Amino acid sequence: RARASAGQRVLVHGASGAVGLAAVQLAKDMGCFVAGTAGTAQGEQAVRAAGADAVVSHRADGYVARLQELSPEGFDVILEMAAHANLPLDLALASKRSCVCIIGSKAEPVGVNPRATMVKEVDVRGVFLGTQTAEERAETHRALQ
């Protein structure tokens, strides 16, 4: 749904789970620069093995600054597994005219300043495979082959 393409910078926020690892692999296959976050050494190792160009521990001090160093202009696509915790941060890390895809979140309210989306013209999209059209499902299957 983010329509990532070769040369774009992708952040997989929560890359060490099954969905995140698949996202890393798909984005790399598309020719993207991929940064992934993980919360354990084992998770970091899995994200590296999946092909991420950079791996950052989201538990480390200064991890946001490290992500900003990796992509000073921001990320073109951010795939978010825990929007309840990270959505405001994702908007800060997003580049102009980027896309933040919410793939996972607890059912909790999130305080977001709407201007954070306006100034950068960020698209925020919810993603749920259960509502895919037949065409989208076919596209997903093609991407996974």
TrEMBL record:
Under the heading Gene3D superfamilies, the entry gives: NAD(P)-binding Rossmann-like Domain
Q: Provide the Alcohol dehydrogenase-like C-terminal domain boundaries.
A: 18-134
The UniProt entry, under SUPFAM superfamilies, shows: NAD(P)-binding Rossmann-fold domains
* Superkingdom of origin: Eukaryota
Q: Name one GO molecular function term.
A: mRNA 3'-UTR binding
- Which Pfam families is this protein grouped with? ADH_zinc_N
Gene Ontology CC entries for this record: cytosol
Supply the alphabetized keyword list: NADP
Question: Which PANTHER family does the UniProt record give?
Answer: QUINONE OXIDOREDUCTASE
Its recorded name reads Alcohol dehydrogenase-like C-terminal domain-containing protein
To which species is this protein native?
A: Alexandrium catenella (Red tide dinoflagellate)
